[in-house]
Amino acid sequence: MSINFKNELYRGIVTENPIFRIVLGMCPTLATSTSAMNALGMGVSVIAVLTCSNMVISMLRNVIPDKVRIPAFIVVIATFVTVVDLLIAAFIPPLYEALGIFIPLIVVNCIILGRAEAYAAKNPVLPSIVDGIVMGIGFTLSLTMLGAMREFLSAGMIFGYAIAPFKHQFILMILAPGAFITLGLVLAGINFIQNKES
Amino acid sequence: METKDKKWIVGQGSHIYFPQDTSKIMFQVILALLPASAMAVYVFGFDALKVLLIGVISAVAVEALIQKYLMKTPVTIGDYSAALTGLLLALNLPASSPWWMVCIGSLISIGIGKLAYGGLGQNPFNPALVGRVALLIGFPALMTDWSVTGGYLSELYRKIPAEALTTATPLGFIKAYSGSNFTADLVAYFNSYSINLKTLFIGATSGSIGEVSELALLLGALYLIYKKVLNWEIPAAFIGTVGIIAMAAYYVKPQAMLLPHYHLFSGGLFLGALFMATDMVTSPFTFRGRIVFGIGCGVLTMLIRLYGGYPEGVSFAILLMNIFVPIIDIYIKPKRFGV
Question: Nearest-CA residue of chain A relative to B135?
Fold first, then answer.
């Protein structure tokens, strides 16, 4: 079974984009897209956890009894989340402080459990790893885009660089309502483009 | 409603023609807000006039631009509803608002509060309040900057060097120092201060542009109630509930509570209860539903004022009760005829 990585990548970023098309993992999406940097950090953590958990779950897919598969998946995912959690705490303390509880909460991220259930539990190891990578990249790109939009709309900055710095920060955009408004407008925009095409 | 569209008259029986349409209603409400606007210009000076004009113009412009270029639907600025939203938004802002903040408010009011839901009649929340609350959360410092540069109020401040009155509204001041050792002193100061019932009622306390003069607001609202554009149930239930809770709170703890008339006349209660809570689109259909809606608004307002993080809770209370309107309309139905 050969894998066309380019097609898979297109699937992860566009047709099955975890945030904008499948609309999974809303909790970290809304909470950690306060700035482009936080969003990127969260996205990379998710890529790491998703790839590793997809790999291990795919390896164990014939061993895990069907009735207890969800707890078994969670144990695997929690293991990798703990690894990522401790690594970030040790090497990138500012990011660890900014993301806070949302790193441990990757355990219950719907995207990761969703990919385990929908893909890794049914497919061989190599395609599962590729699926983890492309889905993670789709998640990271979407999340970073949202983070950059919110950071720009609140302070006129992207990744901490002043593009057009505001004299008065519009802090609504980095608070929860800003997350819902930005996500809603992006989803509306995507639907608008899709309706136009079809 | 276009009566020339004959296709719509389907049923048998008597039909009544009512010579009222959206643009007439909206125009009457704008007319009714003119006394309060005039009072605002008198109290705050040229700044208030500037904010009011920018509010109306930017709201109409945003509606026209979005409908023409983004939605590509017929432009409906002719029904005055965008102008009314802009006016209400401006009346909810401080006189010191910079022009760009008013424009952002209009964009959020019209763009997100109204058109994103499908336009007039589809919006679950009062659009002007959506804009105001977004600005209040987004620019907390600018939205509570009550400084004045002209008008009657600046004259008054020159005569009374009362620091408490130039820097904050009475409700804001009490909230800022709540829990501190000064609370009792401050309360005593406001409760004994000579700027009392009459001044608060007619105007001349700092606050948002439109909320200074309860008298002017009442005049406009009475005209609308007479014209049957506004209902009286929501304002009566809303203001009554706030009054009763404020009185009860005052008699339980007189040393820590402002006199009830501060709660009635110094905040945005009248503007909210008379012109925002009564919005036809976002309030219940039935008489009993409106009473429930008004009481809910009053209780939430006082909960936020007495226990919440913000000094003023009228706009949050109305938005929160707007969410309950569909459920109120489901459970409180008019008596069916002939059952």
Answer: A172
Which residues does B31 contact at the CB level (< 8 Å), separation at least 6? B220, B223
Amino acid at residue number B126: N
> Nearest 5°: phi and psi at B132?
-65, -45
Residues B100 and B214 in one domain: no
Cβ of residue B189 closer than 8 Å to a chain A Cβ: no
Q: How many residues make up chain B in this entry? A: 339
Q: Please check whether residues B73 and B192 belong to one and the same domain.
A: no
Mutate to test the interface with A, among B69, B137, B139, B144 (most CBs of A within 10 A): B137
Give residue A131's pLDDT band: very low, low, confident or very high (50, 70, 90): very high
Q: B100 with B175, same domain?
A: no
The model's pTM is: 0.85
Residues B175, B72 share a domain: no
Q: Do B134 and A175 touch (CB under 8 A)?
A: no
Q: B134 and A171 in contact by Cβ < 8 A?
A: no
Q: What is the pLDDT of residues B72-99, one digit of tens each?
A: 888 888 889 999 999 999 999 998 899 9
Q: Is the ipTM of this complex over 0.90?
A: no
Q: Is there a single domain that holds both residue B108 and residue B233?
A: no
pLDDT of residue B147: 72
pLDDT in tens, B8-23: 656 666 667 777 788 8
* Spatial CA neighbour of B67 closest among B78, B56, B57: B78
Residue B117 in contact with partner chain A when CB distance is under 8 A: no
Which residues in chain B have their CB less than 8 angstroms from residue A168's CB?
Answer: 101, 139, 141-142
Domain enclosing residue B113, as ranges: 22-143
Provide the 3-class DSSP secondary structure of residue A161.
strand
Report the chain A residue with the minimal C-alpha distance to residue B104: A170
A36-59 vs A69-91: helix crossing angle, rounded to 10:
140
> CA-CA distance, B275 to A85, in Å (whole number)?
52
Residue B126 lies in a domain: yes
Q: Which residue from A172, A184, A188 is facing B134, i.e. has the nearest CB?
A: A172
Q: Which residue of B has its CA nearest to A177?
A: B134
Which residues from chain A sit within 8 angstroms of residue B142, using beta carbons?
A: 168
Distance from the Cα of B290 to chain A's closest Cα (Å) equals 28
Tokens of A61: 């897919």
Interface test with B, best of A153, A154, A172 (most B CBs within 10 A): A172
Backbone φ and ψ for B316, nearest 5 degrees, come out as -65, -40
* Lowest mean pLDDT across B9-13, B136-140, B169-173: B9-13
Distances (CA, A) of A177 to A24, A34, B1, B134: 19, 11, 35, 8
